[in-house]
Structure formats: structure tokens, C-alpha cells
Amino acid sequence: KLDSTVPTVLIMGGGTGAQAINDLVSPELVEFTNVILVTGPNKSSASSVELQRSQRFHGVELLKENFAEALHKADLVVCRAGFGTITELAAVGKASILIPIPQSHQEANAGLLVHKQAAVVLQQDQLTPAKLVDAIKATFKVTASLEENIKTIFPVNATITLCQIIERLGNSSR
Asked: Is there a contact between 63 and 41 (Cβ–Cβ < 8 Å)?
């Protein structure tokens, strides 16, 4: 039940959610977007009571069977920078704002995407709800280029290529 007159933002903090990301979600976001917020178990948004009053806010603890649908409907994804998440974003060509876990390998993952101009990266310790709103507004202006660039991060037909390599190795041992 999304408002088709505004874009949709999917916000998620990983498999268990991220309170730090949840706390950045402000009521101002639903003024110009649909918001699908995946909080994680037993976590909520700092302004969840106010957000839940909006028809454009859709908060859930987990997305299992509906994850593919939510990802498909999202015009922009705000999330962590884990390898699995980046792989999913690249596979479907989704524009994203990455908020890597501070002092973790996710910062290097995010750095690769910045280098390839395939995502916007924000540092968690420098973020406020207002800065996230501004970043989302700015990123909507460049989603097309982000979508094209993220598709180039991983090789196309990697499964076929891997099978060909295995086949060549098997044939060379004869």
C-alpha cells in the first residue's frame, strides 16, 4: 500500500537491524517519500509513534518472504555495507546510501562503491536525522547513474564463468 505519487525508500540495518540507523528515521521523510523501515527484532525508530501515524510509513521487524518485493519497489535503499547486502544491491541495480558499521570491514566495502561511483556513503558518527533527509533528497537526483554503476561491480554471468573454469581444470588433468 504505497503512495504512487512519491518515491519509496527502503531502510534497513542488516539481519538484526541497527538501532543507530532506526534512530535516524524522522517524520520529515514521510513528507516526500514512502518509508519501509526494517527495524530488526525488538528495535524501533526514535520517532516511531509519530511515524506510524503516516500512511506512507511501513515499519516491520523483519522482511522475509516480502524482502524481494520491498527491494523491487524501493527507489532508493539506505543500509549497511556488508558484502551480502552489496551483492543484492548490485544484482538488482539499486541506488543506495550506505552507512557502514564504524571501524569495520564495511568501510572498505563502501569505499569500493564510492570509488566506482556506485553508491553514496555516509559515516554513522557524523549523521543526524536532518543530514539523512538531505542526503536522501540529494541522492534522488543521481539514482539513475548509481543504478548503472552498481551493476558493474560484479561480473555478469559469474556462475557460467565459474563452471567454465572448473570444466577447463577438469579437462586439463586428463
From this structure: no
For the chain, state the CA radius of gyration.
18
Instruction: Give residue 149's pLDDT band: very low, low, confident or very high (50, 70, 90).
Output: very high
Rounded-to-integer distance, Cα 21 and Cα 24, Å: 5
Q: Which long-range contacts (CB under 8 A, 24 or more apart) does 124-127 make?
A: 124/20, 124/21, 124/99, 124/100, 127/24, 127/99
In sequence order, the 6+-apart residues with CB closer than 8 A to the CB of 147 are: 93, 94, 95
> Which amino acid is present at 141?
K
**Structure confidence by residue, pLDDT tens digits, 117-147:** 999 999 999 999 999 999 999 999 999 999 9
**Sheet hosting strand 57-60, strand order edge to edge:** 57-60, 34-38, 8-12, 76-79, 96-98, 120-121
Sign of CA dihedral 39, 44, 50, 53: positive
Q: Which residues pair with 77 in a beta bridge?
A: 10, 96
Mind listing the pLDDT tens digit for each residue in 160-169?
888 888 998 9
Q: What is the pTM of this model?
A: 0.87
Q: ∠52-53-54 over CA atoms, to 5°?
A: 90
> How far, in Å, are 18, 66, 70 from residue 42 at the CA level?
11, 19, 21
